Amino acid sequence: MRYILCILVVLGFGCGTKAQDGFQSDRVKEFRKEKNRAFIEETWSPLVIDDRMSFKGLNYFPISATWYVKARFVPAEHVDTVLMSTSKDELRTAIRPGKFVFTIAGKEQTLWAFQLIEPTASSEYFVPFKDVTNGAESYELGRYVEVPMPIKGVSMIDFNMAYNPFCAYNYDYSCPLVPYYNTLSVPVTAGEKSWH
């Protein structure tokens, strides 16, 4: 579920037209195009057969460099192992190595990063978040974004790549819920919208 970004990048579009600040709008466009194709054709798609037959693509906010945000990584004083609740009342074990601190619309925001205990290693942090758009323009239980591990204490968070958990399309999936402390005080009008 959370490795959809990794799967699609492996399928061939880690590149794009680079803007001066490092933002890659072409990468976002190709990601969205490939994800729409994969949701119809790939065996790992969360859509049931009936939904695949009528699927016309996912809904997204417009791509904008505004949502490509520089974030300072603050390591946790003590790296915690935490239990994350899921949409099916199960528990997932994760490591919480630290938090990202950044500014949106002139307001300082904080999101904690996680590493889910999975059989394969990842070079990115798992960052679930909620914001003011949840339940209206975006999925009510929140969204996820993958953030590269920091270089010299800094990472870029691309909210254009924010995506819905698989349980947004199929109730059979058990998806980690967003911790209350990962709720942003501003609307994030970037990334994936509600499906319906």
Supply database-style keywords:
single chain; 196 residues; alpha+beta; 4-stranded antiparallel beta sheet; two-stranded antiparallel sheet; 3 helices; 15% helix; globular; disordered N terminus
Task: Return residue spans where pLDDT drops below 50 for at least 5 consecutive residues.
Answer: 1-20
Distance between the termini: 19 Å
The number of distinct β-strands equals 6
Radius of gyration: 16 Å
Net shape: globular
Give the overall pLDDT as a whole number.
89
Helical fraction: 10-25%
Order of helices and strands: HHHEEEEEE
Largest sheet: 4 strands, antiparallel
Strand content: 25-35%
SS field, number of helical segments: 3
- Order of neighbouring strands in the sheet with most strands: 3-2-1-6
> In terms of structural class, how would the helical and strand content be classed?
alpha+beta
Summary?
The chain has about 200 residues and is an alpha+beta fold. Helices cover about 15% and strands about 30% of the residues.
Would you kindly provide a written description of the structure presented here, covering whatever features stand out?
By secondary structure, the protein is an alpha+beta fold. It has a domain at 59-182. It has three helices and six strands, in the order H-H-H-E-E-E-E-E-E. The strands form two sheets. It has a four-stranded antiparallel sheet, with no helix packed on it. The protein has a two-stranded antiparallel ribbon with strand order 4-5. Strand 2 and strand 3 (107-116) form a beta hairpin. The longest helix has 17 residues, at 25-41. The two termini are 19 Å apart. The relative contact order is 0.20.
